[in-house]
Write a structure and sequence with these properties.
about 350 residues; three-stranded mixed beta sheet; disordered N terminus; globular; about 55% helix; three-stranded antiparallel beta sheet; mainly alpha; single chain
């Protein structure tokens, strides 16, 4: 996403693009315009008697979170000063894809932000059409409804009705996650950006709960993270097993498919001992597990331990941590992976 004035500079480029590309950017402009049109200042929504009290309570909480993000987390807070009710459960539907026998994600190129591992649509029908097109090309495909996204500081993103249902801690995590994208974003490195936002947001929630002396809330949040990490660890181990399957030789394509399915079946079996209360429920929609879906987990979590090490090395100093992360813009994707990958030894 980008500032309106940048779209005019893109018009000559779009004229040279394939029809499907022009359609994609057209729907993106239309979807973003709808959000602008339906947004209004938080103060106006809070003063409106027709707005439900439960919505106002969430708006007041987000105002508190924005203030904390600015004062204690050193995050930009241009976003979330307005409220937008889209009257639907998701703001966008995101398409992920990967070859049938590879865990390497398909990438799409975008102006200003480079290559990303997903394609977002404001209409679910458009997302399904893109998914069907990719499936016909032989890709593993996964579609996920998304409750929030960041325009990376180019725009002042509003609060959306799509994420107000979350618990206080989960709402705080989402707000801090999206604000982190506006702090540091490296074009073309989805895994880095999402893992940094995840690690920074989780740390931010801990600091916020401690500032409120909410011992019970902090204990529950840590327990939630622990449950989720167990599910994530299982999925990341599964992804490594898939890599081994794809690297091996197979007598036929059908036998490679069977070997792939056995890996996913093993994950679903092992998931029986993982708490069903984990945010990522592995056993939900079991038939949808494929390379594309498991990559979504890897994108958000593979590098998180690496960022946690960096923060610890800086003694918990957020400004120093953010500066260290920002300095990694100068590195290649491979160099960043070497520093942040879980297998790297920093002892």
């Amino acid at each position: 996403m980008m500032k309106t004035r940048n779209w005019f500079a893109l018009l000559p480029l779009l004229a040279l693009c394939a029809c499907s590309t022009v359609q994609f950017y057209t729907q993106a402009v239309s979807g973003q315009t709808e959000i602008w049109r339906k947004s209004r200042p938080n103060a106006e929504a809070l003063a409106d008697p027709s707005v439900a009290e439960k919505v106002k309570q969430r708006l007041r909480l987000i105002e508190e979170l924005r203030a904390f993000a600015a004062s204690d987390l050193h995050l930009p807070t241009k976003s979330f000063g307005k409220y937008c009710d889209l009257k639907r459960p998701y703001v966008v539907w995101v398409v992920y894809a990967a070859p049938e026998f590879s865990t390497e994600s398909k990438k799409w190129w975008y102006p200003l932000v480079g290559s990303l591992k997903y394609r977002g649509f404001f209409n679910e029908k458009d997302a399904k059409q893109e998914a069907d097109r990719l499936k016909r090309k032989g890709y593993d495909v996964f579609i996920g409804g998304v409750e929030a996204y960041s325009t990376l500081g180019y725009l002042a993103d509003p609060i959306l009705n799509t994420f107000l249902h979350r618990s206080d801690a989960e709402l705080a995590e989402l707000i801090f996650h999206e604000l982190t994208h506006a702090k540091v974003f490296i074009p073309g490195d989805t895994d880095f950006n999402e893992a940094f936002a995840t690690a920074n947001a989780e740390d931010g929630v801990r600091r916020w709960l401690r500032s409120k002396k909410d011992v019970k809330g902090l204990r529950e949040y840590e327990a939630s993270l622990k449950r989720n990490r167990k599910a994530v660890e299982l999925m990341l181990r599964t992804r490594e097993k898939l890599k081994a399957v794809y690297a091996a030789s197979h007598p036929s394509v059908e036998e490679e498919r069977q070997a792939k399915q056995r890996v996913f079946d093993g994950m679903l079996k092992d998931a029986q001992v993982v708490s069903p209360n984990a945010r990522i429920n592995i056993r939900r929609s079991p038939k949808s597990w494929n390379n594309a879906r498991i990559n979504t987990v890897a994108t958000y979590y593979t590098m998180v331990p690496g960022f946690e090490r960096l923060l610890k090395a800086e003694g918990g100093d957020l400004e120093a941590f953010h500066h260290k992360v920002a300095s990694m813009r100068k590195l290649t994707n491979e160099e960043r992976v070497k520093i942040l990958a879980p297998a790297a030894s920093h002892d």
